[in-house]
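Quick note —
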Amino acid sequence: MKLRPYQNESVENTFQSWKENRSVVGRLATGMGKTIVFAEIIKRFQKRALVIAHREELIWQNRSKIETVTGFKFQVEMGGYKAVNNFEPDLFNPNNTGDAGVVATVQTLTAGGDGLGRMTKFLPADFDLLVIDESHHATSASYRRLMEYFLQNLNLKIIGVTATPNRSDEESLGQIFNDVAFDKDMNYGIQEGWLVPIEAQAVHIESLDFKNIKITAGDLNQGQLSAVMESEKPLYGIADSIIEIAGNKRGIGFSPSVNHARMMTDIFNRYRPGCAAHINGKTDKDERKKINSDFANGTIRWIWNCGTHTEGFDDAGVEVIVPKPTKSVSLLEQMVGRGTRPHGSIADSLGDISNAGFRRSMIQRSSKQNCLILEYYGNRYDLATTFDLFAGNVTDEAVKQAIALARSNGGRVSVTKSLDEEEKRAEEKKRKDLEESAKKAKLIVKSNFTKSQFNPFNILGITAAKPRGWDVKKSPSEKMRAVLRKMGLNPDDFDYAQTRQLVGEQLRRWSAGLCSMKQAQLLKKFGYSSEVTFEQARKTIDSIAANGWRRDGLPPQIGSSKPAVKMPVRSTETVSMENPF
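Predicted structure written out below.
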């Protein structure tokens, strides 16, 4: 199986991180193939592996994908399924008739009075690789017991993979895993043309009264939320608007209760007989399989579920998502992620296209150009919204303004485009306010980066990264600090997340032979792109200097228009291309 570039990078980064760490974690947004990534890791690791998940659907999906990617046989340890120690020491022996490992549920391995379950049927030395799927759950006591047991094998390496960690998850995961091997979120997937764009439509339902709902375990009390959502006025108000807005598109609805899922299904089927079905945790396995199959082939257009489709449901035909109200950004991301996969007719072909713009264009020409998120709100404004999923590198003010605009307009909006526009407005307002303040006070406005001579993020055209939970207690390595110094920056001005971001950008520029930071600063000042080679930048700057340091009369692009090529680093600089992370 051919890996996509970011998948191969994730695999390689994992092995690189293992050189100094025993346990690492990686994030790939839903729909970007995290199962393929850890299957490839298993294949290259060439030693026995234990793969852990927490749901039956994930066990069978993982086993199937691992065996497809690796060609190895995996046994299942779950409930009535029991693996036997039939391990072949040499996985690559042509006569191998054994198994490369086991896929198991954490519940089966740890359940029981002593908390050890069936994991002690295996010796720690039986596995040299432990894979934890949906690793945002790994902070729980059962996962910790499991990891402690198998870590008795001093050769053991651990990789945790997740699509949706929230900030508190990240901070806790940072205490369990030694390093973050890769991190590609939903915004990356959309911008790079691997996932479909998200459009959101905020729909106000006046009868949705959330103000008296209590907070339980950090989220809305599900019993009280269900009582509100099951009330007649909001129930029919939501159903009517979904049917009107969504038309004949296929969608997934997330309900706070089994009864709500059943009621929404009944209303949908009154409008359009046979168009909807509902699933919950107690739905018979065969019936659940049939409903999902009917949805996949278009026999039904809607599934209303309660607690079953946030993980492990991978249907690329989903065009509309109706999330249940929540304060949890990670839960919202799980729900939204069910609709971000490109249409199946083009999904495989995207991997053959090297240009992100071409991939995005291909999605726009497909029968699934985007995914629509219908968000219903009433009189409570502290709930998670789709805009919060893309707020990592934009200001809180931009997020607030984008949400307010979407709610006032009431129509469909592109989430990322709206955030970008609001961020630009906020930056322009801030710039004007600073200039006005400076004029009044007759002062020179200084950058937020007071010790450095310039704002590198502005020069490079990127937004400063916000610290992630798993980065909170980390400090930049001396190698990372050295790169910043070579960029002309004071390392003390930047936290770990910003340093990692700047170093990664600088490594990219060095690898591509792009111009220096000082050159980029001058180019930016005169409105030229910094995505040019050192020589192109030199010619441009020389032309500006010869023109009296004015751009007036100069062409829009000076020097070669050919794309930047890899060039040797100037002999006056000593640069190590060794990974500083």
